[in-house]
Amino acid sequence: MSVKLLLKGDHRALAKAISVFENEEPEAAKIAKEIFPYTGKAFTIGVTGPPGSGKSTLIDKMIKHYRSKKKSVGVLAIDPSSIFTGGALLGDRLRMTSHNLDPKVFIRSMASRGEAGGLAKATRNTIRLLDASGKDIIIVETVGAGQSEVDIVKVADATIVVTVPQLGDQVQTFKAGQMEIADIFVVNMADLVGADKTVTHLLGGIVSKYGWTPPVLRTVAKSGEGVDNLIQAIEKRKEFLAKKGIAGKKKVDKIKAEIASLIAEKISKASLKELSSSKDFEKIIEQVNKKKIDPQTASEQLFTRLWKKR
Amino acid sequence: MSVKLLLKGDHRALAKAISVFENEEPEAAKIAKEIFPYTGKAFTIGVTGPPGSGKSTLIDKMIKHYRSKKKSVGVLAIDPSSIFTGGALLGDRLRMTSHNLDPKVFIRSMASRGEAGGLAKATRNTIRLLDASGKDIIIVETVGAGQSEVDIVKVADATIVVTVPQLGDQVQTFKAGQMEIADIFVVNMADLVGADKTVTHLLGGIVSKYGWTPPVLRTVAKSGEGVDNLIQAIEKRKEFLAKKGIAGKKKVDKIKAEIASLIAEKISKASLKELSSSKDFEKIIEQVNKKKIDPQTASEQLFTRLWKKR
User: Fold this and answer.
1) Does one domain contain both B220 and B107?
2) A114 — contact with chain B (CB < 8 Å)?
3) In chain A, what residues touch B299 (CB-CB under 8 Å)?
4) Structural domain harbouring B185
5) pLDDT, tens digit (0-9, with 9 covering 90-100), for B9-50
6) B266 in a domain, yes or no?
7) Do B114 and A146 touch (CB under 8 A)?
8) How many domains does one find in chain B?
9) Rounded to an integer, what distance in angstroms lies between the CA atom of residue A302 and that of residue A123?
10) Global pTM?
11) For residues A261 and A263, what is the distance between their CA atoms, to the nearest angstrom?
12) What residues form DSSP beta bridges with B45?
């Protein structure tokens, strides 16, 4: 594939490059190196929420807005449902829209392979490719479940958590620490009964971080109602990050986290390789199998031999 | 908490012990050591499938069967939807059933925290506690999405993948490699239109492993239709594992995988600790921030210093 064409914004080159990373082809490292200096200009928006909360419709409206402002948009839809793809893939739903014909809009979906940390890595690389290709706005869409919601925070400048009004007596529960991932809350389908209750509930659990208090917005994505407010909130978030110097700090933190995870991955691989060819490993597994030693103690012993006595 | 009571099958002691592990209290290591010799007797069944496929109802019927055979049952429901708990938690749905009053049935739900590998570790420990407490059958229920489906294979002796008939023209897609996790396929709600098509589709993609060909069964969990066949298939699977000596080999493989992941975790932590206090790390992050070097190259350099030159 041609890095030159990618840097010019060519969608075919971009699609090919993403595939190279997805399939972990040897060329990936070279491309990563070449494009890296051209990254860092895009603003990344994470959109997460349960299935059926209208994320795709909302993103469709966001794309329309940004296109009206002549901004180019890249969308990365991460689909965590890997065994069962009941219904359309997240990205497919978007691709069915008119944006598909727009040369300034690129939409890609990606299936989570269920590998630990794998999604964050693939997401980071794809965002970088979109960024280098000149996209001004990058939207990462994911279903709010497990690993993917944690990963989205790692890559997004603004994380939008979409929810819908709760019906009847059903109370929406947010677990401890998980209100924290949202920079902006959106109660979509806000024309439905129960919207007020949901907004109140969310407001009660808001957690400020570094001086930013996540707003709780109402939208009706289908009609476009409230989307302007959402765009404004994203702009405010952008200004906040820039003014407080948080953008720069966040950038450094992201780099740290990425390098740390890349190193951890390499060290894990290297140590397991060393382990698998060691007689100690076989012996200790036999002992665990015979219930003479428990796995935790066994791993501590091996760890000591592998690492501490370097 | 009392390990003695736990070993006698006391549910309060069991519940307390699980919490000790969930909250990673210091006592956990001690308990793990003490109970380990009493583990290895239970048969573990994994049940995975999309939301709304009737997993809970199916498990309810399975519990009824095993209880009629005087077997004790432990159920561990893993809920990956962490931000949004739309509807009841997996385990709650089961707990609403009559089994709640049965002293030989223990049901626990557990939320995935989205940590890489964390779920597998917590699941393994909880299964061990259930096992040591004398449960004959342990059922692990999870929504088939991302990490949790990969983890279930690591811990289950028999993995059941539940699906439902596809309506209309919608074709169910199974991604490469992902047919492989099922030891038994169940098409639930098999009285619905589309069941034949779904069965045919599944049969077309069946992958035999080590001489085991996953059967494709039809059930109507609500009425109990087909559940007998499912129980028979599980029995066959159990006999197959025993006869071929695969059970023993699988056990060793599981021990290997567990110890390897425990060691990898320890080494990652140790190396990142060493890293965070090194000047090299700060310097290289600054270089990445200035785009003089890309993250992959940076991590390779640091890895070399940390590991290879031991």
Assistant:
1) yes
2) yes
3) 259, 262-263, 266
4) 39-257
5) 999 999 999 999 888 888 998 999 999 999 999 999 999 887
6) no
7) yes
8) 2
9) 34
10) 0.72
11) 5
12) B139, B158
